[in-house]
Amino acid sequence: MGIAAVALLSAAVPTSAATRPVARAGSQAAAPAGRIITDDLGRRVAMPAQVNRIVTLAPSLTEIVYALGLEDKLAGDTNECDAPIAAKSKPHVGDMQNPNLESIVALHPDIVLATTSINRVDTADSLTRLGIPVYTTDGEFRTVLGMLDSIGRMADLIGAKAQGTDLVAGLRARLDALHARLEDRPMAHVLFVVWPDPLLSVGQNVFIADALRWAGAESVVLSKQNWPRLSMEEVVRLQPEYIVIESDHSQSGDAELTDLRSRSGWRDLDAVITGRVIEVSEEAIRPSPGLVDEIEKLARRVHPEAFSETTEKRDSKYEARAEIDAAAKSAGESVQCAR
Predict the structure, then answer these.
(1) Residue 125 and residue 132: Cα distance in Å, rounded?
(2) In the chain, which residue ranges form alpha helices assigned H by DSSP?
(3) Measured distance CA(64)–CA(319) in Å, rounded
């Protein structure tokens, strides 16, 4: 498991009264630059007239900045920011939960981006007292579309509304195309392993569970807890069709499967016996654009028949026909308007 998985699990630990978010305002659109805006913690943030220097305190936020094409404005990030690879060469300000405040100040950021899923609230408090604006996003997403909405708000906040609109539209179109391809197929039943020992999976109300559904899969774990702990006896009883496991790629997929087959309990699972173990990257547990890549990859693994050459040719013909029909309809409407 990677560092991001550890940070993800740390978010499951209840915060103290002193650090608990005071409000949620995730649906509120960002105000124009140079205005007082409210972040997802309900904090009032004085935004500068123009954002030229950004510091990000989480890998997901760094990925979003790059996806928006604003890497030249990224003044610094954390030690754990490793995607894209270019992010590794940016000045680092320490780790996600305990960044070095002096390093952040030395980078003269116009705005620091943080997230509730990883960063500590007192970090934002300290930076605010030093006169540095901090915008904190609500990282506890329940849905993938909620994540996309957050990306759009963040883009608007840092003066990249057009780029954000294009990015979100492109990601949404890919998800819609995937849904159209898979909507008539039965859901694959999977166990998503967030952490192997103790065994932790995902509940029904976190974005990873929703990401599975977009991929044509559903978790065999029915829990209201975000990160439920399971016994191997329970997993053997559930007998998932697939095991989906986040990996830091310290060993190959074959080695991972061999390891599971050597473990008591795991070797009794049909999915392990038949080799239906799927490794996903840390992108699968990050609320960032790369999550859509992982959803598409997972869909191809659990529903290979939906991506066969014959199916793809048929879908291409359907999409072409739909485009022609849409163009004809648009032309007809234009003629009517001209009359």
Answers:
(1) 10
(2) 3-10, 59-67, 101-106, 121-129, 144-157, 161-182, 207-214, 232-238, 253-261, 270-273, 290-302, 309-338
(3) 29
Burial 209-226 (b: 16+ CB within 10 A, else e): bbbbbbbbbbbbbebeeb
Question: Average pLDDT in the 260-274 region?
Answer: 84
- Is residue 60 predicted with pLDDT exceeding 60? yes
**Measured CA distances, 100 to 79, 86, 268 (Å):** 11, 21, 47
Nearest Cα to 54, choosing from 36, 33, 23? Answer: 33
Q: How do strand 188-193 and strand 217-219 relate by DSSP bridges?
A: parallel
Q: Is 114 helix (H, G, I), strand (E, B) or coil?
A: strand
pTM score of the predicted model: 0.79
Output the CA torsion sign for 186, 190, 194, 200: positive
Is the pLDDT at 21 greater than 70, yes or no?
no
Which residues is 219 bridged to in the sheet? 190
Helix (H, G, I), strand (E, B) or coil at 77: strand
Q: Can you tell me the distance from the alpha carbon of 339 to that of 334, in angstroms, rounded to the nearest whole number?
A: 9
Q: Which residue has the tokens 């790059």?
A: 66
Per-residue HEC secondary structure of 152-211 comes to HHHHHHCCCHHHHHHHHHHHHHHHHHHHHHHCCCCCEEEEEECEECCEECCCCCCHHHHH
The contacts of residue 335 (CB under 8 Å, 6+ apart) are none
How big is the chain, counted in residues? 339
* Residue type (1 letter), 232: M
Which domains are present in the chain?
Answer: 3-161 (3.40.50.1980), 176-307 (3.40.50.1980)
Dist. CA 98–CA 115, nearest whole Å: 13
Tens digits of per-residue pLDDT, 156-165?
999 999 999 9
Q: What is the pLDDT of residue 330?
A: 46
CB atoms within 10 A of CB 309: 7
Rounded CA separation 209/285 (Å): 10
